[in-house]
Amino acid sequence: MATQDGGSSRATSARHCTHGKPIKVPFAVTRATCAHCLRPARACLCGWATPTANRVEVLLLQHPLETGHAKNSLTLLRLSLARHAVAIGEAFAPALLQQLLDGPEPGKTQPVLLYPGAPDAPTFLPDPHGPPPRLVVLDATWRKSRKMLALNPALQALPRLSLSAPPPSQYLIRKAHKPGQLSTLEAVCHALAQLEGDAARYRPLLQAFDGFVAQQMAFRDTAD
Question: In a 10 Å sphere around its CB, with 0-12 CB exposed, 13-18 middle and 19+ buried, how is residue 96 labelled?
Fold first, then answer.
């Protein structure tokens, strides 16, 4: 996936990605990077970004090991959703985590954790007379998400939202550890559609995600 050019290490070259912003890099550097999505220019995600006006706010808590993962879907989600916040960490300071859960206006929303239900965990029940939900999502492998949950009691206390019969995942570029597992982008889109009652709103973003997956598979096939 890297692009290599010859020449003096002191020379520079202007390279472009689909976002259209040139980046000056030395010829000795083997990989040009998009200044917007921060991915290698050849794998730039900006062309797949799909502006999506989600009504329910989303808080994405990303495990540090996911930040540099080439196949991670959060970047495309971040570039597309209108109302979202991202925080990176595994064990958050309690005060900081509470601020993140409360959002910019404490008490105006009800944080809801997108996670499979458990006998000892409360289940989210929509209340038409209560504050609107604020969807909280752990962007991590299942093993790491369980650790994040264990390390952050405030997350354990949140009411949980489980997906109602989501379609099979199209995340073919990353191995699922259990049947029915979805990428973060797919899970968020289906959860928002469930909460808002508007699946059509998220269909274009899911279609763009399919294009991203196809692009990554083409890179893999070329490398092989």
Answer: exposed
- Report the Cα–Cα distance between both ends of the chain, in Å, rounded: 11
Dist. CA 187–CA 164, nearest whole Å: 11
Please write the tens of the pLDDT for every residue from 13-36: 344 444 444 445 444 455 688 888
CB proximity list for 154: less than 8 A, separation 6 or greater = 94, 97, 98, 101
Q: Where are the domains of the chain?
A: 1-44, 50-209
Q: What is the rounded average pLDDT of the residues 83-101? A: 97
- List CB contacts of 79: < 8 A, sequence separation 6 or more: 36, 37, 45, 46, 49
- Residue 6 scores a pLDDT above 60: no
In this prediction, residue 166 has a pLDDT band, given cuts at 50, 70 and 90, of: confident
176 three-class SS: coil
Tokens 């890179």 correspond to what residue? 219
| Cα gap 25→218, rounded to integer Å | 26
DSSP-H helix ranges across the chain: 74-80, 94-102, 142-151, 153-156, 184-196, 203-223
